[in-house]
Amino acid sequence: MRWVAGGWGIVITGNVQIDPKHLASPYDLTIDPSSASHKSRYMHLALMAHFTPDRPLMIMQLSHPGLQSSSILNCSRAPWEPAIAPLSARPTMGGGLLGKVWQYVGWPVKSRKVSDVGEWLAIVERFVEASVMAGDAGWDGVQLHAAHGYLLSSVMSPLTNPDPPPLPGVPEDVPLRLHLLYLILRGLKEQTAEFFIKAVKINCSDFVQGGLDEEQASDIIRAIVSWNLVDIIEISGGTYTNPVFTFSFCISSTTSKRQSLFAHFTSKLLPTLPPPPKGPAILLTGGLHDRWVITDSLRERACDLAGIGRPACLIPDLPDRVLLNPDVPGKFTHVGGYTIPQGDLAKILLGGSKKEGKGIALVGAGVSTLWHTWQLRRMGRGIDPDKKLTWFKGLVQEEIWEGLVVRGWRRVRGTRSEVYQKVQLG
User: Fold this and answer.
1) Domain membership flag for residue 375
2) Contacts of 102 (CB under 8 A, 6+ apart)
3) pLDDT exceeding 70 applies to what percent of the chain?
4) What is the domain count for the chain?
5) Other C-beta atoms within 10 Å of 94: how many?
6) Rounded distance, CA 202 to CA 221, Å?
7) pLDDT average, residue stretch 210-215
8) DSSP three-state, residue 47
9) Per the database record, which ranges form the NADH:flavin oxidoreductase/NADH oxidase N-terminal domain (predicted)?
10) Is residue 372 part of a domain?
11) What residues make up the domain containing 336?
């Protein structure tokens, strides 16, 4: 919890999965509203943050990875048990041969298409119950992860949800692909306190890969705003100044389209939306890596809140140490632009390709994302981040050993312990 004392105004967690069987990585936290121990742990985290001098707002990011969840890599369900999504498919890993191999190794079976309305409503209930538990545990709000090709994002995309079913209880003017998100947000409105923050995370990359143009993507944002159910909308996937904020395996033409959409949002759409408190605060994440750029984005009302993601994985006290430190001149406040040792080689070996691939790209677990996740895991074990950590050393040390072996053994041991307790109680 180094971030709570680092000068941040808001701390948003990474993935907290609403279904323990469906993880995006072996490290993901889960939330079980029926578990007293889960509530106690999350309450402890909230108390730690609220009793620091800075007292940042604590927002829990709730997520379901959908078809991005690998049964092999995460060991959270049987290898033959599929992920769930609005279609039956596998995520793509680039156009190379190794990418194809990795695609079938990580996802031996295609995702199962959810066609039953009752199952969709059960997913709504999971999100709502998790949010209620977060509020009861003292958290200031939740953020619904509707980006990175995860479940909520895939439902919103024409590529992954070509024939969306209508869900009951949704107003007629709500687009079909937004029914799931609407029902979750309405549930949060009805079952959590008014001061409890309701946020949504979206990504320009998802809109581009889904085949949406600028106006279609803008219509989605306007629709979400019109519901008056959201306090914060986070938009990422581009760069406020330069098109260098990219995901692994994204080709140049896709990057250009994504950056164009990101620029459209920041320069044309966002200034037309009602400012807070009449409308949601816009949180912009992408390329805001120095004091001048952040100041400019706020002054020009390209956003209401400035978000920083990956650099914060290396410098948890970034605001106090650099951005807000009066002893650091503005020209020395740039914290982006670093490279990942062996990162380019990893992309090539894992099947990265410069050619535009077809299908649903795996954007949630790219080379850069994994490397920054490993930095977070180091801090979780009380070890400082290592900017010189090579990608393949991280793969062996953090992903295979700490992620699969150590955590896998703890999971097995925990399961055995639960079975033993049930036998004793029986």
Assistant:
1) no
2) 93, 350, 351
3) 81
4) 1
5) 26
6) 9
7) 69
8) helix
9) 122-214
10) no
11) 2-363
Residue 100 lies in a domain: yes
Query: How many CA atoms are closer than 13 Å to the CA of 194, on its beta-carbon side?
Result: 0
Show the 3-state SS of 389-424.
CCHHHHHHHHHHHHHHHHHHHHHHHHHHHHHHHHHH
Q: Is 376 exposed, middle or buried (0-12, 13-18, 19+ CB in 10 A)?
A: middle
| pTM of the predicted structure, to 2 decimals | 0.87
**CA dist., res. 83 & res. 209, Å (int):** 20
Residue 413 lies in a domain: no
Single-letter amino acid code for the residue at 297? S
Tell me, what CATH number does 348's domain have? 3.20.20.70
As a residue count, the chain comes to: 426
Query: pLDDT tens digits for 330-385?
Result: 888 888 778 899 988 887 776 654 444 445 555 445 788 889 989 998 998 899 99
Model confidence band, residue 257 (pLDDT cutoffs 50, 70, 90): low
Give the tokens for residue 333.
Answer: 């406040």
CA 232, CA 279: separation in Å to the nearest integer?
9
Cα-to-chain-centroid distance, residue 365: 11
d(CA 81, CA 77): 7
Radius of gyration in angstroms for the set of CA atoms belonging to the chain, rounded to a whole number: 21
E strands present in 325-396: 360-361
